[in-house]
Design goal:
This protein has helices at residues 9-93, 97-108, 134-146, 186-212; strands at 113-121, 124-131, 151-165, 171-183. By secondary structure, it is α+β, with helices and mostly antiparallel strands. The chain is rod-shaped. The model has no long low-confidence stretch (mean pLDDT 80).
């Protein structure tokens, strides 16, 4: 028996292809939506994690700022304590400074100079006196600069020529002077003396070695 298909087979084939295309398109759209949703969720998770990390960093940064302020405050307190300690040590070591001051002035005075006044303000000593000549004043300046570790930076403030009457007939010309000198603290003077002693010992040792050769 021969069967004859009287239906429009081309239309049916076209419909099948269209149905397959629609199904494929729908599946592609669904797959694309799922991929987009997955990507969106992944980005949202990464963004949330980054925000949490940023929040943690901000909290830790604030903690560190607080610790830095505490450390700065401790350093200031330590510096203040050290300054107080140094001040106390300077006061203790400087108790004998007036004795060194008067002793060194007497030791360094050349002949022909009379000191009329000595005044101290902090570490600056002002010396007023009378000298037989300007050369005597220059000699005193050199002595204070080079011969003692207890004085530094001597400076001649003023020198005025005048006369002094030894008797009614005997009058001599003199130089009235004012000079300033820095009084060295005991700790610094002791360091200077120790360095000078070490230098002298080294020089003596070198001389002895040279003599043996």
């Amino acid at each position: 028996m021969i069967l004859i298909n009287l239906l429009p087979h081309r239309e049916a084939a076209r419909k099948r292809r269209r149905d397959v295309f629609n199904v494929t398109l729908g599946a592609s759209a669904l797959l694309g939506g799922l991929v987009a949703a997955a990507v969106f969720l992944w980005y949202q998770g990464a963004l949330s994690a980054q925000q949490d990390t940023n929040s943690l960093l901000e909290r830790e940064s604030k903690k560190l700022d607080g610790q830095i302020k505490d450390i700065a405050g401790l350093e200031e307190e330590i510096a203040a304590l050290r300054a107080r300690q140094k001040a106390v040590e300077d006061l203790q070591s400087d108790r004998n400074l007036p004795v060194h001051l008067l002793t060194e002035i007497v030791n360094q005075l050349p002949d022909g100079i009379y000191v009329s006044k000595v005044a101290q303000a902090d570490q600056v000593v002002t010396i007023n006196g009378v000298a037989q000549s300007n050369e005597r004043v220059s000699e005193l300046l050199r002595n204070l600069a080079n011969n003692t570790p207890w004085f530094a930076k001597p400076e001649l403030v003023e020198i005025v020529s005048g006369t002094v009457a030894l008797s009614q007939r005997d009058q001599r010309r003199v130089s009235n002077f004012t000079m300033k000198v820095h009084l060295v603290r005991s700790s610094e003077a002791q360091k200077s003396m120790a360095a000078s002693a070490a230098s002298g010992a080294s020089a003596a040792s070198a001389a002895a070695s040279t003599a043996k050769k």
